[in-house]
Amino acid sequence: MDGGLGDKPHLWALLRSYLIACFIIIALAWPARSITEESLQLVVQRQEVPSLLQVSESLVVEQKESEPVVSNDNQKTEAQPEQMAQEKGRVKDKLHSIIEQVASRHNVDPALIKAIIMAESGYDPRAVSKKGAKGLMQLMPKTAQELGVTEVFDPEDNVEAGVRYFKRLLKRFGGDVKLALAAYNAGSTKVRRYRGVPPIRATRYYVRKVFHYYRIYKKEMNTPTNDA
């Protein structure tokens, strides 16, 4: 009979080397297997859990689907014209109050100032002409500066300056409303040059238009017009 492993040292050394090699291989293979399983688990989780973008998109779709098909835009549109008319009415009443106070303070017919404003700006406090006239009474920048206007688009400042300027023109032309209106539109120099309303189509139309509105406002106030 052959002897045991102790009798054959070379066989024992070979077996020991084999066992060590197997242990090393198993040790090296185990982390790789673990990583592979973890990677597969992450892939599964990523497939099962939706991303934030997918969640937000789904919420948007749900919100759109939950919104009513019929909106209330028609109700808003129907109420808007009435509200706008009421607001314009309140603004115009406030402007008329300012005009009446300022005109009375300077002893000028309020109906005439209302007519001038209607012809000049259509009661738009923010009106600006092509030539640069601004506000309710369409004051030119130089005129507004001479009259000490601080805020040309402010109704009170604009009307105050405009009435004072028109009052000055009335005095300059002896109380003649037509000449004062012509001077307000075309300038005093042209009125003096032609010794009357200048033969300018726009100016003559302006004078007629102001008197048209003047009669309307005087009728509302039940007072006679001054056609001098």
Helices and strands in order:
Blueprint lengths: L8 H40 L3 H15 L6 H33 L4 H12 L19 H6 L8 H18 L4 H10 L1 H7 L6 H21 L7
Helix pairs in contact: 3-4, 3-6, 4-9, 6-7, 7-8, 7-9
Give a short overview.
This protein has 228 residues and is an all-alpha fold. The protein has helices spanning 9-48, 52-66, 73-105, 110-121, 141-146, 155-172, 177-186, 188-194, 201-221.
Instruction: Give the C-level CATH assignment of the largest domain.
Output: Mainly Alpha
What is the number of beta strands? Answer: 0
Pattern of helices and strands: HHHHHHHHH
How much helicity do the residues have?
over 70%
Q: Characterize the main sheet.
A: none
What is the CATH architecture assignment of the largest domain? Answer: Orthogonal Bundle
Structurally, how many domains make up the residues?
A: 2
How many helical stretches? Answer: 9
CATH topology of the largest domain: Lysozyme
Strand content: under 5%
